Amino acid sequence: MKHSSRPQQATAVSASEHHNHQLYHEPSDNCYVKFNGSHGRILSLLLKFVLAFSVILCFGDPIAVLLLRPAMVEVSFEKASLTKFSITNKNILNFNLALDVRVRSPNKKIGIYYESLEAVAFHRGERLGSVSVRSFYQELENTT
Predict the structure, then answer these.
(1) pTM to 2 decimal places
(2) Which GO terms describe its biological process (predicted)?
(3) Strand partners, 118
(4) How much is the average pLDDT of 110-123?
């Protein structure tokens, strides 16, 4: 075998030959990020917290519904009185309607807080009037 002391000449390679030379590069064993010490523990705790919070958000409401078994309130009208019922020349209706409303909560494990209520009177799809009802809390298995 004959060795040459002369440097080898570079050969020209076209762009297409160069790019098709190796399509896949095998990753080395050091191709990952490793967190050491306190950074790894902090990241681990953060990921555990995010996972636990996500599980609580996804499954918290269905579990609460299964445990508490809330029931719909029952609303009924006990007494009604209509006074001052008149129509003006401009077809404006004036009336005073008083209702006694009964709200029953059959729930044995939860009370209900009614924060914002509005009673609205309709006749044949037309809104006749409305009144705001003050907020209140209804105890367990209570009728108000």
Answers:
(1) 0.47
(2) defense response to other organism
(3) 132
(4) 87
